[in-house]
Structures are given as structure tokens and as C-alpha cells.
Queue: 4 jobs
Job 1
Amino acid sequence: MTTITQAASPLADAIKAATQFKLLLDVQPAGALFNPCGSGDARESVCYALASLSLAQATLAEKASSGALTHGHDQVDLLMEVAFGPDRIREKRSTAYMEGARSYLELCVTGAEMPCKYGTGTAEFDAYFAGLDEGREIWRSQMRKEPA
């Protein structure tokens, strides 16, 4: 016998359904999905990228409102997933760049400082500080979304 359980909230239900639907799309062969936003595979469309971003943001909001973000690192991980996850259509970033973004977010969320481990004058040093700038923008964007 199948048991039907009620989810914690309508938002949780929507997130679960969207996640399951997205997983169905993701396993289809490349080029097999009609793209209502233009030509090519639907997973390469702006619509798909925006839907993926909205899903990640809704997941973050649901976890934050339910108290599921029990540790500051959880929030940082979710913010990094929203910004750099595989569902985002954007250029890949270097490890140093992503470490810089994570460093800024860790400082804002947990107060932990992560000093730059790269030597001055190196490409990694420059990438780390460019990542810090993006981390600052990610944090500002998050603060604009949260109620006062």
C-alpha cells in the first residue's frame, strides 16, 4: 500500500516536483528536447538556465525558512551552488576564483577568514581577488532578497 505524506509546505512540494522534472530532463540524450525559447537543445536555453536558477534559489529560501541551514557552511554551499553549479550557463571559473568567492561568503556567513594562499603577481592571486569581488556581489544580491 502506498502512503501519501504531506510535505512541509507548498513551496517544498513545488521544489520536489521541479527537481524530479529537471532530473527527467537531464537524463535525456543531447538534442532530444524541444526548446520553446529558440533553437538547439532545451538544456542550453536561457529558459532552462533561469528555471534552474529559480529552483536553486527557492531551495535556498525553503531551507532557510525551515531552519534546515543548521550550519553557516550549509548556506555558503547553497550560495556557491546557485552561483557556480552545473545548471548555470556560464563560463567555468578557476579553482582560485571559486576559492575567492567562497572566502568572501564564509567571512559574511560564519565570520571565518580564509587568507589568500597564492603569491602576489600570479594569475591565481588575481583570480582569487576577482572571485572575492563576485562573492561580494553574491552576498549583496542575497541581502537584497532577504526581508529586513
Job 2
Amino acid sequence: MKTVKTLAAVRQVVALSKRDVFVRWSKGAAADARGGWVSKDQISGSFEGGLSVVRLDVDSDYEALTTINEYSFLRFFAGATTCYLVTGDEAGEGADGEPLLVNCEPLARVGGGLIVSRETRELVRLPLEVAHEEAFLARLMGQEATCSTSLSCCVARLATARAQIDALTAGAAWDDVRRISIRAT
């Protein structure tokens, strides 16, 4: 199975798939296949009616990174060291409301700079939010002065986003963001 290391490569996998693509954190596709493509509910201990996954949305970099990393914490206590993309037939919902797949087909292992911290994901999202707010502010300022409440709200949101960027970039995560930003383009 190939490994995707950039968001562009993830998007390519999604584009080539004829079905929805999902993210799975586990001990790997081979281990999931040996287990019959069935997940075990960690709280009740019962087996579910398929493989527990998260639907992948690649419409925005932030959503894609968030989805890929949503269950990355499992690598620290559940031995789930591999993230991979998978497709299959939806067979219902698991105990937490997540999709369950049957007839699974692993597509690619996820690696490289795509497995990131929450802080790094925020650093990817916040510049996009600021750009959106600046564009919105420019549109408002080009209009007649009938939007004063909206204008002040927008300015406050922009200031909040910039303060969050400043706070996050003060730490060591900035190098991660530069690496992610370069790989994602």
C-alpha cells in the first residue's frame, strides 16, 4: 500500500476513488483484515457491525487535517500506530455514531507531515480565517455606511484571529506549520 505525505496526494486518492473515502486509525490495514474488518467497542467490549472510521472531507485543508488527526491520540494508549485511507460500504453506525464499513478496501497509508498537533492545525486554519475576514471587511467598507454593527463585529473577529495566530506562532510549532504549508501546496 502506498503512503501519502501531502494533502495534494490525499486529494488525488479521493479523486480516484469511486466511493467515499474514510480515515482509520489502527494497528494497520493488515491487522484490520486479520480481524475480519470489524471494530471492537472499547467501552462495552462488544464487536461492532463493521470497521469504525471517520468520513474524510478534503474541501478545506483545515477539515482534511482535522479529520486525519481526529483519532491520532489512539497511538499513545491503544497501540493504533497507523493511519490509513479506506473505502467500503457503509453498514450502519458504531457506538459513538461513527460510520461502520464492510467490504473494506484500503487505499493508502497516511504519513509524513500530515500527522500533526492541534496547534499546527490551528496555524493552518487561522491564516485562512484572517484572509476571509479581511476580504469580508473590504467588501463591507466598499458599501454604504449601513453596516456599522457588522463592521465592528468583523474587526473584532479579525483582531481575535490575529491574536490567536500571534499566541500560537510564539511557540515551536511554527516550524511545523511552515513544513505543512509547503507540503500542502
Job 3
Amino acid sequence: MEIIDQTRLPHARVLISLASGSDAAHAIRVMQVRGAPLIGATAAYGLALALRADPSDASLAAAYALLIATRPTAVNLRWALDRVRAATWLTVYMKHFYVGPHFEFSSIVDRAVRAARRAFEEGWRDTTAQQRGRVLFGVAEAIRARRAELAERIDAPVATTYMGKGAIPEDHPLSVGSAPDDPAFQELLADADIVLCVGTELGAETTAQYALQFRGRLVQIDADAPRIGATYPALGLVGDAAATLRALLERVPARKGENGARRAREVRERIDRGLEAQPRDLERGLLSTIRSVLPRDAVHAWDMTILGYWAAAHFAALAPRRFLYPLGSGTLGYAWPAALGAKAALPHTPTLAVVGDGGFMYGAVEMLTARQHRLDAKLLVIDDGGYGILREYQRDAYQGTHAVDLLQPDFLALCTACGIPNRLTSPDRLAADLAWALETPGPAAIVLRETLAAAAPTP
């Protein structure tokens, strides 16, 4: 690797050859390399050079420590070193196994995967395996095909988190969906002999505020080692999810049958029966209408609003990276700007934002952004006159409400003032009006004036 010695600029252009991790560390330390991006790139190449000379764990640890010490506060340097380390850490380290995307050292990778494979095989030998079985759980769209292939190979139902919706199409026979507050969903995970978790930290929303208790063995795949075992004890496989699943796929024996599809179907049907028993025809009807009109690969961004909470658990996501939802931050006003960003990235993909009236006011001005940049995103505003979910929380807790009813503008007039074609819709006209919006060139808006109720967990 060659760099320009920046201590000699601008008077001379001198190239320096770096042949080792130590050379790279020296160049960073004495400021022959400057600028955050270049420091990160040099450190990454330095770590690669060290591993080329000695691919052992000890060499990796020593080179990482040497390079990180050159500029301890440099964010780009640490980020680059962590990316290289995550991609190349192949051997047992601490309490987890590290698996990278490069499999030249197949004997080392065998060590890293053997424990997970043994866990699967021990589960299959259990006398209750046909009843309890295995479950794949988590997110990681990048490994969608691998996960579906592995699920089919081991005949395992696939449950997803909210942020993982669409990683496997929710009309796949092995898909359970993403309803973590429903007992049918929880029992499937709790009773399984083995749960393979891919890219999920098993956080509060995913585990019914940590009420979920696993009776079987957890095998957890994540690129970030501290996330493994942070909430539940697990056998950890640290590394690229696609690479790790590929290693498992090559080594785990196939289990043929229809038990997994039957178990997934039973969970879905039990949840459906529970929802049918609730007086929630309006909310379920809206979700059904939106799903029937949106193309399979459409982007749908959901705000922190009652219909968004319904969608997280019960809207069928049929393609990866198409269900957008602000789970981590819980941000009001997220959906409309997110839909615009998605439309800018995928200009030929239909895009819909579903927002409440309170949340929409955080980003209403972005209607002008949509017009100015010709972003052909569509908007559905659910107008119930305020913060609907907070009304429910306050009534349940205090038998009254305070500061949740909002003085709002006329949303139709506001859209018109911004040059956005708009319609007032109703539940029975929503399908036609949503189809109109999707066919209208440029941004378009639909306003639905309804008061919705949150879903209750099914029995």
C-alpha cells in the first residue's frame, strides 16, 4: 500500500510504501496520514496487512490494539477497524464464535459453526422435537434468501421483529408474522427446542417487555458482539449474517416435512381468530384495503399512530426493506419524510406514507419538498383530531384526558395550498381513492377522518 506523505505537502509529493500493520500505525501516529476518511482507510488496510502476514487471533488482537492507539478518539479509524475485524474474525474469542464472509480457512469456520450445528442436532433428537421443533427469529433483510432457504431446509417457522418485516414474505408458508404481544406468537418461541435469532437484540418490543421466556436453546447471530446475550443467554455466532447462515446451510442436515408450515399456520390462524373476536372491523378493514391496493414491492412508511401499531403486528409485508417504521426512536412525524427519502432512492417504486394528524404536523412542510424535487410519494393522513393513542392511555390510566385534543388546520386546504392533489376519503372509498393517488403524477394526499382503536393482544 502506498500513501502520500502529507507532512511533506505542499512542497513535495513523496510516496511512502506501507508493508505491514506497524507501518500503517506509524504513518497515522506521525501524521503522514491526515483527514478522518483517509485515516480510517489506512487503518483498515493496515489491519488487513497484519492478517495477511499472520491470520491468528493473537495477530488480529495485537494489530487492532496497535492501530486503535494511534488516534484513540478518531471515529473513522475505530469504525474502519471494527468493520474489518467483524469481516475477518473467524475463530473462537471470549464466549462467542466469530464467523466472517471469507471461508478460505474452512477448518476454522468448522469450529465456529460446529456448536450451532450440534445444538440443532440435539434438538432434533429430543423426543418432543416434532411438537416443539425449531424457530428462526429476527431481521436482516440482506440474508432474506439464505434465511428462507435455511428455514425450508430445517422445516422451521420464521418469526420476524417489527423491523424485520418482509425479510421473508409474510405469505410464505413458514412465515409466522410479527405479533410479539400475542400469546400464540410467544408460545411458539417459548416452546421451541431451538430458536435461531438473526440480527435481533431481543429487546423490549420484541419480547413483550422481556416477559418472553425461552425454554429451549438460543443460537444468536449478530455482527455486534455486545448484543449477543445482552438480554437472554445465547450461543453466539458473531459476524456477517449472510455468511454465517451460508455456513450453517452447508453443514446442517435437511429435515423434510410439513410440520413447520403447519405450526406457522396454526399461529397465524389463532391470531386471526382472536382478532375476529374483537370489535375492530374498521382497523382490520383499512389494513386489508391498503394491502390489496399497494403493489407487492411498494414501500410503505408507517408513523407512530394507531394504524401504524396495527400494521407493525398485522400488516403483511411481502418484500424486503419496504416496511418502514420508527421502532428505535418512536419518532412522531417519521413516516412522510421517510417515504420521501425512499422515493428519492427508488424513484420507480410506489411509495405510501401513513400518518396520524398529530404526527403529520411535524413534517407537513415537506409537502413542498415533495413538489420541488418531484418526489412521487403518496400520503394517507388519519385525522382523529389529536393524539389518539395518548387518549387511550390516559383514559385507561386516569379515566380522563388532558392536552391530547389538538387544534388542527384543514388538511385538505393545507394540501391544496402546497399544490398537492388531495381527496377526503372514507373506509368504503379508500380503495378507489388510494388507487387514484397511486395513478396521479407527483405527490398526492388522502385524508381519512376516523377515530381508530388500538389492537388488544389475542388470547
Job 4
Amino acid sequence: MLQIEGVTILSFAPDWMHCKHLGIDKILLGSTLYVLVHDVLKGTVPENLEQVWKDIEAEYKRQNTAHRYGRMRQTMFHQTSQPKLQGKAVEVRDLGPVLLKVWEKHMNHNLDIHRKIQVVLSGFSKSQTLNPNFFLVFKVLSTWVVVVGFMLSRFCCDRMSLGTVSSNFPLHSTCL
């Protein structure tokens, strides 16, 4: 495609909803929920899920979140291959800042891996305020996807994998 006269890398822009909200965010948030429910909290999986959901609901209310999940079941983020949260793009988008606060409530601040997950969640929450139509954002996000994928696969448990995300990022981009 880049062989066509007038078509350059500047002719491409990311499909923000599919690349971010329905792509990497679903995997990041699903992986975070999985780690919270299975590894961080000390109760049984159903008890932990109930606790996390109560925290999410309280944070939804505190942040006055517009688009909320109505409930949370383990099957919504527990897949056989890798955790991936189910839901609509706006639900996933609005859960990011909420889940950051829930993570910060339960994380062990003495564990390096927990601080790294916090940094990644914080970066994703802050990226909500970026203008997705600005070309620099495309370059930053494509680099961010690779960096986050590397961080999660290298520093987190095996269940936190972003193997297909960086390869699918260009596929979900659209030509102007």
C-alpha cells in the first residue's frame, strides 16, 4: 500500500475504539481482574470476585462513571488462552480509571510487580485524555502497545499475555 503515490505512513490513523478499548484494554483489564481475583486477594475466587465487584461499584459511584458494567462474573474475563474482558467499548473504556483505584486499594506496595501493573494501569487511564486524531498519539500508542506487551509478558504472570495485540494493531488501523 505504501507503494501507491501519495500514500505514506502519515496516511494512516488508528481505529481508537478497536485498537485500544476493544483491543489492548480488554486484555489489560481482564488480566488485572484475573490477578486480583486469583492471586492478590486471599479468599476463594467467588469471594474475591464479590469483593472486587463491590469495590468497582463503589468507585463507579465515587467517580460518577457514565458507562458501567451491570455485573461481573468470572467468565467475563477468564478465558482458556488468556484473560480478556468481555464488554462494550464504552464499558471497557470507563472501567480503566475505576480498576486503577481498585488495584491501588488491594496491591502490595512492597512488590515490584504490583507497582509495575499500577504504572501500566495508570498510563492507560491517562491515555483517555489524549486526542486520538493527533498523529503523534498514533506513534506513541503503537510504541506503548509494544512496550506494555513486553512489560506484561516479561514481568507479570504467564496469564498476562499480549501476544496478538501488537501484531493486530496495524490491522485495526484505517487508511485515510
